[in-house]
Amino acid sequence: MTTTTADHGLRVHARPAGFVTDLLSVAGRAVRQIPRDPESVIPAVIVPAIFYIMNVGALSGVTHAATGIIFKGFELPVSVIFAVTGVSRASSLVLDIQNGYFDRLTITPIRRLPLLLGLMMADLALVMLLAVPVIILGLSIGVRFDTGVPGMVVFVVISGLWGLVFTGLPYSIALKTGNPSAVNSSFILFFPFVFLTSAFAPLPALAGWMQAIARYNPMTYVLAALRSLIGVQAVPGQAEHWHWAVLGLGALAIVGFGVFSMTLALLALRGRVHRR
Amino acid sequence: MESPAVVTEGIARRFGDYWAVDGVDLEIPAGEIYGFLGPNGAGKSTLVRMLCTLIQPTKGRGIVAGYDVAASPEHVRLHIGVALQDAALDDRQTGRELLDLQARLYGLHRAERLGRLSQVLQLVDIGDAIDRRIGTYSGGMKRRLDLAAALIHDPDILFLDEPTTGLDPVSRVTVWNEVRNLNDQLGTTIFLTTQYLEEADELADRVGIIARGRLVAEGPPAELKRSVGEDVIVAQLSGADDATAAAVAAVPGVDKVVAGRGELVIHAGDGAAAMSPVALALHHCGATVTSLILRTPTLDDVFLQYTGAHLQEDTATTDEEPRP
Fold first, then answer.
1. Nearest to residue A220, comparing CAs of A235, A201, A207, A238?
2. Ranges of each domain in chain B
3. Considering only CB atoms, which chain A residues are within 8 Å of B78?
Protein backbone atom coordinates (compact mmCIF):
# COMPACT_ATOMS: atom_id res chain seq x y z
CA MET A 1 0.00 0.00 0.00
CA THR A 2 1.21 3.47 -0.72
CA THR A 3 0.61 6.56 1.27
CA THR A 4 -1.12 9.15 -0.84
CA THR A 5 -2.37 12.61 -0.31
CA ALA A 6 -5.79 13.33 -1.68
CA ASP A 7 -6.38 16.42 -3.77
CA HIS A 8 -9.06 18.23 -1.83
CA GLY A 9 -9.52 21.00 -4.39
CA LEU A 10 -13.22 20.67 -5.31
CA ARG A 11 -15.53 22.13 -2.70
CA VAL A 12 -19.15 21.09 -2.80
CA HIS A 13 -22.14 21.91 -0.64
CA ALA A 14 -24.34 19.16 0.68
CA ARG A 15 -28.07 19.75 0.36
CA PRO A 16 -31.21 17.64 0.63
CA ALA A 17 -31.46 15.61 -2.59
CA GLY A 18 -35.26 15.70 -2.78
CA PHE A 19 -37.84 12.99 -2.29
CA VAL A 20 -37.66 11.54 -5.81
CA THR A 21 -33.86 11.31 -5.84
CA ASP A 22 -33.91 9.72 -2.38
CA LEU A 23 -36.52 7.21 -3.54
CA LEU A 24 -34.77 6.33 -6.79
CA SER A 25 -31.39 6.07 -5.09
CA VAL A 26 -32.65 3.58 -2.52
CA ALA A 27 -34.66 1.66 -5.13
CA GLY A 28 -31.70 1.59 -7.52
CA ARG A 29 -29.48 0.04 -4.89
CA ALA A 30 -32.17 -2.52 -4.03
CA VAL A 31 -32.65 -3.46 -7.69
CA ARG A 32 -28.88 -3.86 -8.17
CA GLN A 33 -28.83 -6.26 -5.25
CA ILE A 34 -31.41 -8.62 -6.73
CA PRO A 35 -29.20 -10.40 -9.29
CA ARG A 36 -26.39 -10.41 -6.72
CA ASP A 37 -28.60 -12.32 -4.32
CA PRO A 38 -29.97 -15.09 -6.60
CA GLU A 39 -30.59 -17.52 -3.76
CA SER A 40 -33.45 -15.32 -2.57
CA VAL A 41 -35.08 -15.20 -6.02
CA ILE A 42 -34.58 -18.63 -7.58
CA PRO A 43 -36.79 -20.52 -5.08
CA ALA A 44 -39.54 -17.94 -5.67
CA VAL A 45 -39.60 -19.03 -9.32
CA ILE A 46 -39.01 -22.76 -9.00
CA VAL A 47 -41.23 -23.62 -6.02
CA PRO A 48 -44.46 -22.13 -7.44
CA ALA A 49 -43.79 -23.79 -10.81
CA ILE A 50 -43.35 -27.19 -9.19
CA PHE A 51 -46.36 -26.54 -6.96
CA TYR A 52 -48.43 -25.68 -10.01
CA ILE A 53 -47.42 -28.72 -12.05
CA MET A 54 -47.97 -31.12 -9.13
CA ASN A 55 -51.37 -29.72 -8.23
CA VAL A 56 -52.59 -29.68 -11.80
CA GLY A 57 -51.35 -33.23 -12.29
CA ALA A 58 -52.90 -34.52 -9.10
CA LEU A 59 -56.16 -32.61 -8.82
CA SER A 60 -57.29 -31.67 -12.34
CA GLY A 61 -59.43 -34.71 -12.97
CA VAL A 62 -61.17 -34.91 -9.63
CA THR A 63 -61.81 -31.18 -9.40
CA HIS A 64 -63.18 -31.01 -12.92
CA ALA A 65 -65.45 -33.98 -12.23
CA ALA A 66 -66.72 -32.49 -8.99
CA THR A 67 -67.09 -28.83 -9.91
CA GLY A 68 -66.81 -28.53 -13.68
CA ILE A 69 -63.97 -26.04 -13.55
CA ILE A 70 -60.78 -26.18 -15.59
CA PHE A 71 -58.29 -26.68 -12.79
CA LYS A 72 -55.15 -25.57 -14.66
CA GLY A 73 -56.71 -22.12 -15.10
CA PHE A 74 -58.24 -22.15 -11.62
CA GLU A 75 -54.90 -22.96 -10.00
CA LEU A 76 -52.67 -20.61 -12.01
CA PRO A 77 -53.47 -17.55 -9.82
CA VAL A 78 -52.64 -19.56 -6.68
CA SER A 79 -49.21 -20.40 -8.06
CA VAL A 80 -48.59 -16.82 -9.11
CA ILE A 81 -49.66 -15.59 -5.68
CA PHE A 82 -47.36 -18.23 -4.25
CA ALA A 83 -44.52 -16.71 -6.29
CA VAL A 84 -45.16 -13.09 -5.30
CA THR A 85 -46.28 -13.32 -1.68
CA GLY A 86 -43.59 -12.76 0.90
CA VAL A 87 -40.85 -11.81 -1.57
CA SER A 88 -39.15 -8.69 -0.22
CA ARG A 89 -35.85 -7.07 0.64
CA ALA A 90 -36.69 -7.37 4.36
CA SER A 91 -33.78 -9.76 5.01
CA SER A 92 -31.49 -7.31 3.29
CA LEU A 93 -32.88 -4.50 5.43
CA VAL A 94 -32.14 -6.48 8.59
CA LEU A 95 -28.58 -6.97 7.37
CA ASP A 96 -28.26 -3.20 6.89
CA ILE A 97 -29.57 -2.63 10.41
CA GLN A 98 -27.16 -5.15 11.88
CA ASN A 99 -24.03 -3.99 10.07
CA GLY A 100 -24.69 -0.30 10.66
CA TYR A 101 -25.33 0.64 7.03
CA PHE A 102 -28.89 1.66 7.93
CA ASP A 103 -27.39 4.09 10.46
CA ARG A 104 -25.07 5.42 7.78
CA LEU A 105 -28.08 6.14 5.57
CA THR A 106 -29.98 7.84 8.38
CA ILE A 107 -27.03 10.17 9.08
CA THR A 108 -27.38 11.53 5.53
CA PRO A 109 -30.09 14.11 4.75
CA ILE A 110 -32.30 11.39 3.23
CA ARG A 111 -35.99 11.65 4.04
CA ARG A 112 -37.17 8.75 6.15
CA LEU A 113 -40.01 7.46 3.95
CA PRO A 114 -37.82 6.59 0.92
CA LEU A 115 -35.76 4.29 3.14
CA LEU A 116 -38.76 1.95 3.02
CA LEU A 117 -40.57 2.99 -0.14
CA GLY A 118 -37.41 2.61 -2.23
CA LEU A 119 -37.15 -1.01 -1.18
CA MET A 120 -40.83 -1.56 -1.92
CA MET A 121 -40.40 -0.07 -5.38
CA ALA A 122 -37.74 -2.67 -6.11
CA ASP A 123 -40.01 -5.37 -4.66
CA LEU A 124 -42.86 -4.36 -6.96
CA ALA A 125 -40.62 -4.68 -10.01
CA LEU A 126 -39.36 -8.04 -8.81
CA VAL A 127 -42.72 -9.62 -7.96
CA MET A 128 -44.21 -8.55 -11.27
CA LEU A 129 -41.23 -10.17 -12.95
CA LEU A 130 -41.67 -13.31 -10.85
CA ALA A 131 -45.28 -13.67 -12.00
CA VAL A 132 -44.24 -13.92 -15.64
CA PRO A 133 -42.53 -17.37 -15.72
CA VAL A 134 -45.49 -18.99 -13.95
CA ILE A 135 -47.92 -17.37 -16.39
CA ILE A 136 -45.83 -18.62 -19.30
CA LEU A 137 -45.90 -22.10 -17.78
CA GLY A 138 -49.70 -21.89 -17.55
CA LEU A 139 -50.01 -20.71 -21.14
CA SER A 140 -47.75 -23.53 -22.27
CA ILE A 141 -50.10 -26.13 -20.82
CA GLY A 142 -53.16 -24.58 -22.35
CA VAL A 143 -54.45 -21.93 -19.94
CA ARG A 144 -56.14 -19.16 -21.88
CA PHE A 145 -56.92 -15.63 -20.81
CA ASP A 146 -60.46 -14.87 -21.94
CA THR A 147 -59.71 -11.20 -21.38
CA GLY A 148 -56.78 -11.39 -23.78
CA VAL A 149 -53.46 -9.60 -23.49
CA PRO A 150 -54.96 -6.67 -21.53
CA GLY A 151 -56.26 -9.25 -19.05
CA MET A 152 -52.80 -10.72 -18.79
CA VAL A 153 -51.34 -7.30 -18.03
CA VAL A 154 -54.00 -6.66 -15.38
CA PHE A 155 -53.25 -10.13 -13.98
CA VAL A 156 -49.57 -9.22 -13.54
CA VAL A 157 -50.43 -5.83 -12.04
CA ILE A 158 -52.88 -7.29 -9.51
CA SER A 159 -50.38 -9.98 -8.57
CA GLY A 160 -47.65 -7.39 -8.20
CA LEU A 161 -49.79 -5.09 -6.06
CA TRP A 162 -50.75 -7.98 -3.79
CA GLY A 163 -47.09 -8.95 -3.49
CA LEU A 164 -46.27 -5.31 -2.70
CA VAL A 165 -48.83 -4.85 0.07
CA PHE A 166 -47.82 -8.17 1.61
CA THR A 167 -44.23 -6.89 1.97
CA GLY A 168 -45.51 -4.54 4.67
CA LEU A 169 -45.54 -7.49 7.08
CA PRO A 170 -41.92 -8.65 6.73
CA TYR A 171 -40.73 -5.03 6.63
CA SER A 172 -42.56 -4.19 9.82
CA ILE A 173 -40.98 -7.22 11.51
CA ALA A 174 -37.54 -6.33 10.11
CA LEU A 175 -37.75 -2.73 11.29
CA LYS A 176 -39.26 -3.58 14.65
CA THR A 177 -36.88 -6.39 15.59
CA GLY A 178 -33.77 -5.97 13.43
CA ASN A 179 -33.57 -9.74 13.78
CA PRO A 180 -33.04 -12.03 10.75
CA SER A 181 -34.66 -15.03 12.44
CA ALA A 182 -37.82 -13.06 13.13
CA VAL A 183 -37.95 -11.96 9.48
CA ASN A 184 -37.45 -15.51 8.25
CA SER A 185 -40.20 -16.77 10.51
CA SER A 186 -42.58 -14.17 9.06
CA PHE A 187 -42.95 -16.67 6.23
CA ILE A 188 -45.40 -18.48 8.52
CA LEU A 189 -47.90 -15.67 7.90
CA PHE A 190 -47.94 -16.74 4.29
CA PHE A 191 -49.72 -20.04 5.00
CA PRO A 192 -53.02 -18.86 6.46
CA PHE A 193 -53.26 -16.16 3.85
CA VAL A 194 -52.74 -18.55 0.97
CA PHE A 195 -54.28 -21.77 2.18
CA LEU A 196 -57.26 -20.69 4.32
CA THR A 197 -58.92 -19.52 1.15
CA SER A 198 -60.33 -20.86 -2.09
CA ALA A 199 -56.87 -21.97 -3.18
CA PHE A 200 -57.82 -25.53 -4.13
CA ALA A 201 -61.56 -25.48 -4.59
CA PRO A 202 -64.27 -22.91 -5.26
CA LEU A 203 -65.69 -21.22 -2.18
CA PRO A 204 -69.02 -23.12 -2.17
CA ALA A 205 -67.16 -26.41 -2.23
CA LEU A 206 -65.25 -25.71 1.00
CA ALA A 207 -66.25 -27.07 4.40
CA GLY A 208 -68.46 -24.68 6.36
CA TRP A 209 -65.80 -23.53 8.87
CA MET A 210 -63.22 -23.00 6.16
CA GLN A 211 -65.70 -21.19 4.00
CA ALA A 212 -66.39 -18.82 6.88
CA ILE A 213 -62.67 -18.09 7.34
CA ALA A 214 -62.07 -17.79 3.61
CA ARG A 215 -64.78 -15.15 3.32
CA TYR A 216 -62.78 -12.91 5.68
CA ASN A 217 -59.49 -13.64 3.95
CA PRO A 218 -58.55 -10.86 1.49
CA MET A 219 -56.67 -13.40 -0.59
CA THR A 220 -59.98 -15.07 -1.53
CA TYR A 221 -61.03 -11.89 -3.32
CA VAL A 222 -57.64 -11.40 -4.93
CA LEU A 223 -57.76 -14.97 -6.27
CA ALA A 224 -61.31 -14.44 -7.51
CA ALA A 225 -60.23 -11.28 -9.34
CA LEU A 226 -57.31 -13.07 -10.96
CA ARG A 227 -59.49 -16.04 -11.94
CA SER A 228 -62.04 -13.74 -13.46
CA LEU A 229 -59.43 -12.80 -16.05
CA ILE A 230 -58.86 -16.45 -17.03
CA GLY A 231 -61.23 -18.91 -18.58
CA VAL A 232 -61.72 -21.35 -15.72
CA GLN A 233 -65.20 -22.52 -16.59
CA ALA A 234 -65.72 -25.74 -18.56
CA VAL A 235 -68.34 -24.06 -20.69
CA PRO A 236 -66.66 -21.55 -22.98
CA GLY A 237 -68.08 -18.07 -22.97
CA GLN A 238 -68.79 -17.78 -19.25
CA ALA A 239 -65.71 -15.71 -18.64
CA GLU A 240 -65.37 -13.89 -21.91
CA HIS A 241 -65.93 -10.48 -20.48
CA TRP A 242 -64.48 -8.39 -17.70
CA HIS A 243 -66.05 -9.04 -14.33
CA TRP A 244 -65.77 -5.55 -12.95
CA ALA A 245 -67.48 -6.30 -9.66
CA VAL A 246 -65.11 -9.19 -8.94
CA LEU A 247 -62.12 -7.10 -9.97
CA GLY A 248 -63.37 -4.26 -7.78
CA LEU A 249 -63.64 -6.53 -4.77
CA GLY A 250 -60.14 -7.81 -5.45
CA ALA A 251 -58.84 -4.24 -5.63
CA LEU A 252 -60.66 -3.40 -2.41
CA ALA A 253 -59.11 -6.41 -0.69
CA ILE A 254 -55.64 -5.26 -1.79
CA VAL A 255 -56.26 -1.69 -0.64
CA GLY A 256 -57.70 -2.85 2.69
CA PHE A 257 -54.85 -5.21 3.39
CA GLY A 258 -52.39 -2.58 2.13
CA VAL A 259 -53.68 0.01 4.59
CA PHE A 260 -53.20 -2.51 7.40
CA SER A 261 -49.75 -3.78 6.40
CA MET A 262 -48.34 -0.42 5.36
CA THR A 263 -49.52 1.18 8.59
CA LEU A 264 -47.60 -1.49 10.49
CA ALA A 265 -44.52 -0.96 8.33
CA LEU A 266 -44.60 2.82 8.62
CA LEU A 267 -45.06 2.66 12.38
CA ALA A 268 -42.09 0.30 12.57
CA LEU A 269 -40.04 2.66 10.38
CA ARG A 270 -40.93 5.58 12.61
CA GLY A 271 -39.89 3.57 15.66
CA ARG A 272 -36.58 2.61 14.03
CA VAL A 273 -35.55 6.08 12.85
CA HIS A 274 -36.94 7.95 15.82
CA ARG A 275 -33.76 8.84 17.68
CA ARG A 276 -34.23 6.93 20.90
CA MET B 1 -15.10 35.42 15.79
CA GLU B 2 -16.10 32.14 14.16
CA SER B 3 -18.58 30.15 16.23
CA PRO B 4 -17.40 26.84 17.68
CA ALA B 5 -17.88 23.71 15.57
CA VAL B 6 -19.10 21.61 18.49
CA VAL B 7 -20.46 22.67 21.84
CA THR B 8 -21.97 20.43 24.48
CA GLU B 9 -23.52 21.61 27.70
CA GLY B 10 -24.01 18.95 30.33
CA ILE B 11 -24.82 16.43 27.65
CA ALA B 12 -25.78 13.05 29.08
CA ARG B 13 -27.23 9.79 27.89
CA ARG B 14 -28.75 7.03 29.98
CA PHE B 15 -29.43 3.43 28.96
CA GLY B 16 -31.71 1.95 31.61
CA ASP B 17 -30.01 2.76 34.91
CA TYR B 18 -26.60 3.21 33.32
CA TRP B 19 -25.32 6.66 32.42
CA ALA B 20 -23.08 6.04 29.41
CA VAL B 21 -22.33 9.76 29.15
CA ASP B 22 -22.79 11.76 32.31
CA GLY B 23 -22.79 15.52 31.85
CA VAL B 24 -20.01 16.37 29.39
CA ASP B 25 -19.17 19.99 28.57
CA LEU B 26 -17.10 20.61 25.45
CA GLU B 27 -16.26 23.54 23.22
CA ILE B 28 -14.38 22.70 20.05
CA PRO B 29 -13.38 25.61 17.81
CA ALA B 30 -13.75 25.29 14.05
CA GLY B 31 -10.63 23.87 12.44
CA GLU B 32 -9.41 21.94 15.46
CA ILE B 33 -8.54 18.27 15.69
CA TYR B 34 -10.04 17.19 18.98
CA GLY B 35 -9.03 13.80 20.33
CA PHE B 36 -11.46 12.09 22.64
CA LEU B 37 -9.45 9.49 24.52
CA GLY B 38 -10.82 6.77 26.73
CA PRO B 39 -11.08 3.02 27.12
CA ASN B 40 -13.87 0.87 25.68
CA GLY B 41 -17.13 1.60 27.41
CA ALA B 42 -16.05 5.06 28.57
CA GLY B 43 -18.81 6.80 26.61
CA LYS B 44 -16.93 7.94 23.50
CA SER B 45 -19.15 6.26 20.92
CA THR B 46 -22.33 7.22 22.74
CA LEU B 47 -21.27 10.87 22.66
CA VAL B 48 -20.47 10.63 18.94
CA ARG B 49 -23.84 8.99 18.23
CA MET B 50 -25.59 11.87 20.01
CA LEU B 51 -23.59 14.51 18.16
CA CYS B 52 -24.21 12.92 14.77
CA THR B 53 -27.98 12.74 15.49
CA LEU B 54 -28.33 8.97 15.76
CA ILE B 55 -29.57 9.07 19.35
CA GLN B 56 -31.08 11.76 21.53
CA PRO B 57 -29.39 13.14 24.63
CA THR B 58 -31.23 12.26 27.83
CA LYS B 59 -30.09 15.55 29.38
CA GLY B 60 -28.16 18.63 28.34
CA ARG B 61 -27.64 19.70 24.77
CA GLY B 62 -25.27 19.48 21.86
CA ILE B 63 -24.69 22.11 19.20
CA VAL B 64 -22.96 21.03 16.00
CA ALA B 65 -22.18 23.48 13.21
CA GLY B 66 -24.42 25.95 15.01
CA TYR B 67 -27.46 23.65 15.12
CA ASP B 68 -28.97 21.83 18.07
CA VAL B 69 -28.66 18.08 17.52
CA ALA B 70 -32.06 17.43 19.08
CA ALA B 71 -34.03 20.31 17.56
CA SER B 72 -32.47 20.57 14.07
CA PRO B 73 -30.93 17.21 13.19
CA GLU B 74 -31.60 17.71 9.48
CA HIS B 75 -29.35 20.80 9.46
CA VAL B 76 -26.65 19.08 11.47
CA ARG B 77 -26.55 16.18 8.97
CA LEU B 78 -25.69 18.49 6.09
CA HIS B 79 -22.53 19.66 7.83
CA ILE B 80 -21.11 16.46 9.26
CA GLY B 81 -19.35 13.39 7.95
CA VAL B 82 -19.24 10.31 10.13
CA ALA B 83 -17.17 7.16 10.17
CA LEU B 84 -18.56 5.04 12.97
CA GLN B 85 -16.64 2.52 15.02
CA ASP B 86 -17.55 -0.44 12.82
CA ALA B 87 -17.15 0.31 9.13
CA ALA B 88 -20.80 0.60 8.11
CA LEU B 89 -20.75 -0.66 4.56
CA ASP B 90 -22.87 -2.80 2.28
CA ASP B 91 -20.82 -5.81 1.18
CA ARG B 92 -22.99 -6.37 -1.90
CA GLN B 93 -22.24 -3.01 -3.48
CA THR B 94 -19.00 -2.08 -5.15
CA GLY B 95 -16.96 0.68 -3.58
CA ARG B 96 -17.85 3.02 -6.44
CA GLU B 97 -21.58 2.30 -6.13
CA LEU B 98 -21.51 2.96 -2.41
CA LEU B 99 -19.71 6.28 -2.78
CA ASP B 100 -21.97 7.36 -5.65
CA LEU B 101 -25.11 6.52 -3.67
CA GLN B 102 -23.75 8.43 -0.70
CA ALA B 103 -23.04 11.46 -2.92
CA ARG B 104 -26.54 11.33 -4.43
CA LEU B 105 -28.14 11.37 -0.99
CA TYR B 106 -26.22 14.57 -0.23
CA GLY B 107 -27.75 16.17 -3.31
CA LEU B 108 -24.56 16.36 -5.37
CA HIS B 109 -25.06 16.76 -9.11
CA ARG B 110 -23.41 14.42 -11.59
CA ALA B 111 -20.36 16.62 -12.20
CA GLU B 112 -19.90 17.17 -8.47
CA ARG B 113 -20.24 13.45 -7.81
CA LEU B 114 -17.67 12.55 -10.40
CA GLY B 115 -15.27 15.20 -9.12
CA ARG B 116 -15.59 14.21 -5.50
CA LEU B 117 -15.43 10.53 -6.35
CA SER B 118 -12.15 11.09 -8.13
CA GLN B 119 -10.79 13.02 -5.14
CA VAL B 120 -11.78 10.55 -2.49
CA LEU B 121 -10.55 7.67 -4.63
CA GLN B 122 -7.08 9.15 -4.22
CA LEU B 123 -7.71 9.04 -0.52
CA VAL B 124 -8.96 5.46 -0.23
CA ASP B 125 -6.12 4.20 -2.40
CA ILE B 126 -7.68 0.87 -3.24
CA GLY B 127 -6.99 0.98 -6.95
CA ASP B 128 -9.09 -1.24 -9.21
CA ALA B 129 -10.79 -2.76 -6.20
CA ILE B 130 -13.13 0.24 -6.18
CA ASP B 131 -15.16 -1.63 -8.82
CA ARG B 132 -15.17 -4.86 -6.82
CA ARG B 133 -17.81 -5.75 -4.29
CA ILE B 134 -17.00 -4.49 -0.81
CA GLY B 135 -17.39 -8.01 0.58
CA THR B 136 -14.06 -8.86 -1.04
CA TYR B 137 -12.18 -5.99 0.69
CA SER B 138 -9.70 -6.41 3.53
CA GLY B 139 -10.42 -4.78 6.89
CA GLY B 140 -8.06 -1.92 6.08
CA MET B 141 -9.67 -1.27 2.70
CA LYS B 142 -13.10 -1.21 4.31
CA ARG B 143 -11.90 1.34 6.87
CA ARG B 144 -10.52 3.59 4.16
CA LEU B 145 -13.66 3.29 2.07
CA ASP B 146 -15.71 4.14 5.15
CA LEU B 147 -13.61 7.27 5.61
CA ALA B 148 -14.10 8.17 1.94
CA ALA B 149 -17.87 7.78 2.32
CA ALA B 150 -17.76 10.14 5.29
CA LEU B 151 -15.91 12.70 3.17
CA ILE B 152 -17.76 12.45 -0.15
CA HIS B 153 -19.90 15.54 0.52
CA ASP B 154 -17.01 17.62 1.81
CA PRO B 155 -18.27 18.04 5.38
CA ASP B 156 -17.26 20.89 7.68
CA ILE B 157 -16.99 18.61 10.68
CA LEU B 158 -15.79 15.04 10.57
CA PHE B 159 -16.54 12.56 13.34
CA LEU B 160 -14.17 9.63 13.36
CA ASP B 161 -15.06 6.99 15.91
CA GLU B 162 -11.93 4.92 16.49
CA PRO B 163 -10.92 5.16 12.83
CA THR B 164 -7.79 3.04 13.13
CA THR B 165 -8.97 0.27 15.41
CA GLY B 166 -8.04 -3.02 13.81
CA LEU B 167 -5.78 -1.46 11.18
CA ASP B 168 -2.22 -2.54 10.57
CA PRO B 169 0.46 0.06 11.43
CA VAL B 170 0.95 1.17 7.80
CA SER B 171 -2.77 1.71 7.21
CA ARG B 172 -2.94 3.55 10.51
CA VAL B 173 -0.25 5.99 9.40
CA THR B 174 -2.11 6.50 6.09
CA VAL B 175 -5.27 7.45 7.95
CA TRP B 176 -3.31 9.77 10.23
CA ASN B 177 -1.78 11.52 7.23
CA GLU B 178 -5.17 12.01 5.65
CA VAL B 179 -6.68 13.34 8.85
CA ARG B 180 -3.86 15.87 9.03
CA ASN B 181 -4.24 16.78 5.35
CA LEU B 182 -7.97 17.33 5.68
CA ASN B 183 -7.42 19.57 8.62
CA ASP B 184 -4.48 21.46 7.10
CA GLN B 185 -5.82 21.93 3.58
CA LEU B 186 -9.53 22.39 4.17
CA GLY B 187 -9.70 23.41 7.79
CA THR B 188 -12.09 20.53 8.47
CA THR B 189 -12.87 20.23 12.15
CA ILE B 190 -12.16 16.69 13.26
CA PHE B 191 -13.63 15.02 16.31
CA LEU B 192 -11.65 11.85 16.76
CA THR B 193 -12.33 9.22 19.37
CA THR B 194 -9.59 6.78 20.12
CA GLN B 195 -8.31 4.37 22.70
CA TYR B 196 -4.77 4.69 21.37
CA LEU B 197 -2.58 7.09 23.31
CA GLU B 198 -0.16 7.61 20.46
CA GLU B 199 -3.02 8.46 18.08
CA ALA B 200 -4.36 11.20 20.33
CA ASP B 201 -0.82 12.41 21.00
CA GLU B 202 0.10 12.41 17.31
CA LEU B 203 -3.00 14.02 15.84
CA ALA B 204 -4.96 16.05 18.33
CA ASP B 205 -4.59 19.76 18.97
CA ARG B 206 -6.45 19.15 22.20
CA VAL B 207 -7.36 15.96 23.99
CA GLY B 208 -10.34 15.24 26.20
CA ILE B 209 -9.97 12.25 28.49
CA ILE B 210 -13.19 10.44 29.30
CA ALA B 211 -13.69 7.77 31.91
CA ARG B 212 -17.01 6.22 32.90
CA GLY B 213 -19.00 8.83 31.04
CA ARG B 214 -17.28 11.87 32.51
CA LEU B 215 -14.71 14.21 31.05
CA VAL B 216 -11.83 14.03 33.55
CA ALA B 217 -9.19 16.14 31.83
CA GLU B 218 -8.85 18.32 28.77
CA GLY B 219 -6.12 20.28 27.07
CA PRO B 220 -3.30 20.14 24.53
CA PRO B 221 -1.40 16.83 24.89
CA ALA B 222 1.85 18.53 25.89
CA GLU B 223 0.10 20.59 28.53
CA LEU B 224 -1.71 17.58 29.94
CA LYS B 225 1.52 15.66 30.16
CA ARG B 226 3.28 18.57 31.83
CA SER B 227 0.50 18.66 34.40
CA VAL B 228 1.63 15.31 35.81
CA GLY B 229 5.27 16.36 36.23
CA GLU B 230 8.40 16.74 34.21
CA ASP B 231 9.60 13.12 34.50
CA VAL B 232 8.07 9.80 35.48
CA ILE B 233 9.81 6.92 37.24
CA VAL B 234 7.95 3.63 37.00
CA ALA B 235 8.90 1.01 39.58
CA GLN B 236 7.67 -2.52 38.93
CA LEU B 237 7.82 -4.31 42.24
CA SER B 238 6.35 -6.77 44.66
CA GLY B 239 5.86 -6.49 48.40
CA ALA B 240 4.89 -2.83 48.25
CA ASP B 241 2.22 -1.35 50.47
CA ASP B 242 0.93 2.09 51.42
CA ALA B 243 3.94 2.59 53.64
CA THR B 244 6.23 2.00 50.66
CA ALA B 245 4.37 4.61 48.60
CA ALA B 246 4.53 7.04 51.51
CA ALA B 247 8.26 6.44 51.93
CA VAL B 248 8.90 7.11 48.25
CA ALA B 249 6.69 10.21 48.34
CA ALA B 250 8.90 11.55 51.11
CA VAL B 251 12.03 11.35 48.94
CA PRO B 252 13.29 14.87 48.11
CA GLY B 253 12.46 15.82 44.49
CA VAL B 254 9.46 13.48 44.25
CA ASP B 255 6.28 15.40 43.49
CA LYS B 256 3.71 12.65 43.60
CA VAL B 257 3.35 8.87 43.81
CA VAL B 258 0.47 6.89 42.30
CA ALA B 259 0.24 3.24 43.34
CA GLY B 260 -1.02 0.83 40.71
CA ARG B 261 -1.18 -2.94 40.39
CA GLY B 262 2.36 -4.10 41.18
CA GLU B 263 3.87 -0.74 40.41
CA LEU B 264 4.48 2.74 41.66
CA VAL B 265 4.34 5.67 39.24
CA ILE B 266 6.54 8.39 40.65
CA HIS B 267 6.42 11.94 39.31
CA ALA B 268 9.52 14.04 39.74
CA GLY B 269 10.76 17.37 38.44
CA ASP B 270 14.21 15.90 37.78
CA GLY B 271 13.77 12.17 37.30
CA ALA B 272 17.46 11.39 36.79
CA ALA B 273 18.38 12.98 40.11
CA ALA B 274 15.53 11.22 41.92
CA MET B 275 16.29 7.71 40.60
CA SER B 276 18.92 6.71 43.18
CA PRO B 277 17.10 8.07 46.24
CA VAL B 278 13.90 6.34 45.07
CA ALA B 279 15.75 3.04 44.61
CA LEU B 280 17.22 3.35 48.11
CA ALA B 281 13.84 4.16 49.62
CA LEU B 282 12.30 1.10 47.99
CA HIS B 283 15.17 -1.06 49.22
CA HIS B 284 14.74 0.19 52.78
CA CYS B 285 11.04 -0.63 52.66
CA GLY B 286 11.80 -4.23 51.74
CA ALA B 287 10.12 -4.04 48.32
CA THR B 288 11.47 -6.32 45.59
CA VAL B 289 12.05 -4.14 42.56
CA THR B 290 11.96 -5.93 39.19
CA SER B 291 12.46 -2.82 37.06
CA LEU B 292 12.96 0.88 37.48
CA ILE B 293 12.35 2.99 34.40
CA LEU B 294 12.77 6.70 33.85
CA ARG B 295 10.70 8.29 31.08
CA THR B 296 8.82 11.42 30.14
CA PRO B 297 5.09 11.49 30.94
CA THR B 298 2.53 10.03 28.52
CA LEU B 299 -1.21 10.56 28.22
CA ASP B 300 -1.56 7.26 30.04
CA ASP B 301 0.06 8.94 33.05
CA VAL B 302 -2.53 11.68 32.74
CA PHE B 303 -5.27 9.06 32.60
CA LEU B 304 -3.73 7.32 35.62
CA GLN B 305 -3.55 10.54 37.57
CA TYR B 306 -7.22 11.40 37.00
CA THR B 307 -8.76 7.94 37.20
CA GLY B 308 -6.35 5.86 39.27
CA ALA B 309 -6.10 3.25 36.49
CA HIS B 310 -4.15 2.79 33.31
CA LEU B 311 -6.06 3.19 30.08
CA GLN B 312 -5.71 -0.47 29.19
CA GLU B 313 -6.61 -1.62 32.72
CA ASP B 314 -9.78 0.41 32.54
CA THR B 315 -10.52 -1.12 29.14
CA ALA B 316 -10.25 -4.58 30.63
CA THR B 317 -12.62 -3.92 33.48
CA THR B 318 -15.28 -1.96 31.63
CA ASP B 319 -18.04 -3.42 29.53
CA GLU B 320 -18.68 -2.28 25.99
CA GLU B 321 -20.95 0.71 25.66
CA PRO B 322 -24.54 -0.30 25.18
CA ARG B 323 -25.78 0.09 21.60
CA PRO B 324 -29.31 1.38 21.28
1. A201
2. 6-219, 229-296
3. 14-16, 109
